[in-house]
Amino acid sequence: GALLVNERIDREELCGALSPCSLSFEIVVENPLELYSGTVEIQDINDNDPVFPSSQARLEISESVPAGARFPLESAQDPDVGVNSLQTYQLSANPNFALDVQTRVDGSKYAELVLEKELDREEQRELNLVLTALDGGSPPRSAHVQIHIDVVDANDNAPVFNQSTYKASVRENTPSGTLVARISAYDLDDGPNGDIVYSFSSHTPAKVRELFALDSATGELRVKGQLDYEETKLYEIYLQAKDKGAVPGVAHCKVLVEVVDVNDNAPEITVTSVYSPVPEDAAPGTVVALLSVTDLDSHDNGLVSDVNDNAPKSSQDSYDVYVQENNMPGIPILNVSATDPDLGRNAHLSYTLLQGDTAFGHLFSINRENGTLYLLTSLDHEDQVEFSMMVQIQDGGFPPLATNVSVSVFVTDLNDNAPMVLYPHPNTTTTTYSDVVAPGTPAGHMVTKVVAVDADAGHNAWISYTLLQATDPSLFSVGLHSGEIFTARQLREDDAPEHTLVILLKDHGEPVLSTTATVSISVAEMVKEVLTDLTDVAPASDPRRHVTFYLILAVILVSAAFFITMLSVGIFKCYKWRQSKELYNSSRSTTYRTPGPFHHIDAVRGGFTPPSFYHQVYLTTDSRQSDLLCKKPFTSSPLGSRQGTIRNGEPGLYHQIVGTASRLPTPAE
Q: Is the pLDDT higher at 619 or at 45?
């Protein structure tokens, strides 16, 4: 059962930079049948020296570079791992530079020169330094590189990156040429001193240069090699921007590239046969083989796949958002958040703004990825107070599941409207004293009222009225909230005949907005005096006075025509009524006269007429066009009562005649 080494083991050849380095195996033991798994860990020894890419490095540094400037140096590589790998750097003694050793995310070390004392080209034109790389072995192994620094006249402005760290993510197995990130730097200099060339920093590992390519003109970082999530999950790439000046300025930035796992590995099934062939009399439950399933992918890509059986769930069913009017366009006002317990694309949520009670395309917009609702334009409380809309949250499953969330946006009022005077009209150009008060009017008499409105709401629309200026301040007062103008004291004969009041109208908003109204009041015994005074006032030229005249004339003519028409209709109706009344009286007097002009015709009872049937016909006098009005059966009682209705030749007039018979008529009669 001894495990032996067959050949010399080179850990760096087997595992490279991976640590720990291990080899796995399985052992089957029979009688009894058992399966054991084993792992051999290959431990590292310090058998490799650190190595620099070159034996010399050359830097050009301007004398105008301020203290604190940093200059990355080429990194040494050591294939050993752990404490045997590269651990630190040392710099030869000098009065100008110090060494700062940094650690990458993967634990590797790199060095930067830090300028502690500014350079002076007139004092020293060049410097020679030695950089030593040391590993952690015992004894430590080392490597050296000569650093030659030329001090030259400076380019006044070095390039500057718009950000010091860029972050990007790219899926593994992404094809070559795919854009990963675009870095950007600017240089305030003109001409060649302002032209920027992008490149990898000197301490960028060779593996990174094999996987990524950088466009020196545009700063576009693209995929060059084959990325594998299972090998490396994160790349830390250092880039620099250098101008084309005689002494080029240099700026540095860092790009963190995250490799996203894709499901590019199929599950692997391993079958270990432990009992073959199987005899026909093998007992039930006998172990025949051992099976194991592995998947090199990570997270969800390495599990049993998800089913899209959960709809997105929002933290709230509805949102109420309050936004002040006159807002800045483009501001975010709400973040709609939701979760989906599914995995992968089934849990990827997208947000869509559904149309509400009006078209919102020019007012609101929502970020499809994170649910941030933006207000695209400035709102006005006086235009619309509330907006209602629906936000649909949909996952990326097939078929997709969605949830709707209602959003109400309320526009709060700001005091952005001053009070507006309706009466007296603020655009009056002539002095017309429409408000008159008689001499001797007692105190407390309401003379007129200032009417105003404010388009704002709430406290912003409350208006207060104060007397700002008056011909006689002691004569009139104004209601604080009503705008009604009262006499403050009784009018005297020596009071001025004409008064001008200036009323200040203020709202209760913050800040307070105000306006003024001018009211003219005349003191006169009667309106005639005021009209006499008005005739002395030369009217200002008003192009609308002819229009007003014609409008008044038209109203008078229409009113006169209507009055004449109604009077004619009344006279005609009265005439018809009197005529009908005379005919009615005439008919009544004729009905009860003795026979003569009135013809009374009785039906003759014959063999063809039932003995119980009686006919009466009434005809009016002086007319041969009267109609048969009524024929009606009645009982054979000798004292039967008869009732009939007649209609004469005059339309619209009806009356009833009730007659009685004391006996039945004989055939002779």
A: 45
